[in-house]
Amino acid sequence: MIKRIKVGAGSCGLAAGAGAVRDYLKEHITDIDIVDVGCIGHCYAEPIVEVETDSGSYFFEHVDVSKDLVENIRNLEGPSDFLGRPSRKDQEHIKVTALAGHIDPESIDEYIANGGYSGLEKALSMKPGDVVEEVKKSGLRGRGGGGFPTGLKWSFLAGKDADQKILICNADEGDPGAFMDRSMMESVPHQLLEGMLIGAWAMGATQLFIYIRAEYPLAVKHLTTAIEQVKKRGLNKIGDRSVDFNLKEGAGAFVCGEETALIHSLEGKRGNPRYRPPFPTDYGFKGYPSLINNVETFSNIPLLVREGGETFASVGTEKSKGTKLFALAGDVQYPGLVEVPMGITIGEIIYDIGGAEEGSVKAVQIGGPSGGCIPAELFDTPVDYDSLRQLGAIMGSGGLIAIGNNRCMVETARFFLEFTTRESCGKCTFCRVGTKRMLETLEKITGGNGTEEDIAFLSDIAPKIIKGSLCGLGQTAPNPVLTTLRYFENEYLAHVRDKQCPALQCDALVDLKLDKEKCIECNLCIKNCPVNAISDDYIIDNDTCTRCNTCIELCPVNAIERVNQGVKSV
Amino acid sequence: MESTLQKLDELKGDRSNVIKALQLIQVHEGFISDTSIREVAEAFSMPAVEVEGIVSFYAQFKRNQPGKYMISVCDGTACHIKGSPQVLHWISDELGIGDEETSDDGLFSIERVACLGCCSLAPVMKINDEIYGQLNRKKTMKILKQYQKEPAND
Ligand SMILES: Cc1cc2nc3c(=O)[nH]c(=O)nc-3n(C[C@H](O)[C@H](O)[C@H](O)COP(=O)(O)O)c2cc1C
Ligand code: FES
């Protein structure tokens, strides 16, 4: 018997059309409960419908609004077995995301029925200092990028004697290509709140802030609901006092993910970072001792307290404990949110979980604009804080983007520098001007005007930016360039020496070529070219062509391709 | 605007609410006008240049009236890798406006944004509050046509 129908309606599901699916189902199935849930991580299969029955759950992927859908659901016909795909069978490591996409994010009862707030209950039965000890024992390190030991940070704030102590959750998730925090907040908002409440008890915090990215309206909505529910149930009463949550929306500045900038932004100011020390635990929000942890860090806490620090530490490597969430995207077959034990290799994530074909991916970008590109030869590197750092990359917050063979690494580096140049707050000259100079140089190279001196210049200026910048933004901005130079120097050389883009991506270095043998003269390309660059006898004028690729996309017989310049169109 | 001013009144006691106040104004008016800057400065008893400084720092704040439909083309890492520059190209060609521009009829604005958090569906764009994923040329054009066709209804 069908008990309930769940529609995956996180932002990703909605973008894939889950809203229409849910509305349609509600209209056509009135005898069964239909609820919106968050994301189970298999974003590639959205929209997803889960049918809960007496005998377990059935999943339908890529569902379409149609009569058949209702029939199929009622008869449980043709459900997908994607949870059984070799990649994601390893369910024992699904811990932090265990409830994501499985419960109604707006129901506190469901969270509680699945063990929610039992971590808080247990923590409240312990001495605050013992909770901090447990976090220390777990070996949990910050998931926001830096990897600072969480227990140690907690002991700093716990040791402070002040009339106000502030706990801040960093939900700014600024790395482009990262969506772990969004997914957690949309899918299980209570888990974050529980983690923060445990923190408030352990460290004696008096005020709780969540600084959330403005681009995440659904997460804001679910958190707002969850906060109200917590208040109504009195769960924010810890010991003999009660603490309140404050949800503050950011306003679109990447640097505000940096903790001192974040605090300035919370105070209503421009989000400029400042020199540390003093660290926020000494001098934070409005001068009060403040502690900042990431969404995923806090979301680990309820689990950690429930099972105890030692059990928590049994997963992972010597210095990186527990599991890590990755936002897997780019050139893989199964992009989505994955949770893996620390120490798993990059290759296992890309090939086994992501389903990428061996040999189709030449690198991964890990850690966003502060991270680096790791080449396929090094995919047996274990994912832990220290191994990644040795390669010039960082764990980062969890963005993991597979870069296929047909992408240009110089262009990828340029992309990141464009990002950091735009997001640099401008306070430090080396960051403000240095990233700009790097960007100009990279543009020169991708534009076909680069020389070998330009490559040398990049290597020369990078360490200066690293040394001359006050905050992590500038200190890590050159990483994407340094790692691509280190592992893909041949691509840089091809651009400057041969004026060729091996991946055929850099517009200035490629022409479009129409193969008359293949062409069936269907006229589609001529008709649709926005700049009329294709003549009536099917010759592409590459001087007029803007390389928008419209014709390539439209050609039914793939007669048009990008080629290195020199091979002029016939 | 009445209610916004009322709300401003509630917020003005605490300087840390400046950003929130500006966000509120933008939700109501679509952008931050010179008048709004003066009003906020007054409400929080701070110099107008300081408010202007805050507004210019944060990418979210717009100083010009945007089009009725704001097309946010994601150019985050995943989308960039999956061809967002082409998507922007197509939309620009179709509407005759570029990044950060508004069409003459006031219907469309285009902006490039860094990651909408739907990277697994890259390339992605957002039109007002609606997110569209797995864009190719055909799909993008089809979506645009829908908005071009129904300029009147809200
Ligand atoms: C430029 C910059 C951007 C950052 N962005 C984020 C972010 O979006 N989310 C985050 O959790 N941490 C971010 N961080 C790291 C924070 O400064 C801080 O280390 C972290 O939130 C601490 O939490 P954790 O110990 O739980 O990781 C950023 C750091 C820098 C330098
Ligand atoms: S990179 Fe486009 S949604 Fe994340």
Largest sheet of chain A: 5 strands, mixed
Low-confidence stretches of chain B: none
Assembly type of the shown chains?
heterodimer
Show the largest interface. A-B, 63 and 47 residues
Radius of gyration of chain B: 18 Å
Small molecules held by this entry:
flavin mononucleotide, FE2/S2 (inorganic) cluster
Q: Which fold name fills CATH's third level, the topology of the largest domain in chain A?
A: Rossmann fold
Strand line-up of the largest beta sheet of chain A = 12-11-15-13-14
The CATH architecture of the largest domain in chain A is: 3-Layer(aba) Sandwich
In angstroms, what separates the terminal alpha carbons of chain B?
Answer: 20 Å
The termini of chain A sit apart by 65 Å
- Classified in CATH, the superfamily of the largest domain in chain A is NADH-ubiquinone oxidoreductase 51kDa subunit
Mean pLDDT of chain A: 94
Q: Beta-strand percentage of chain B?
A: 5-15%
Order of helices and strands of chain B: HHHHEHHEEEH
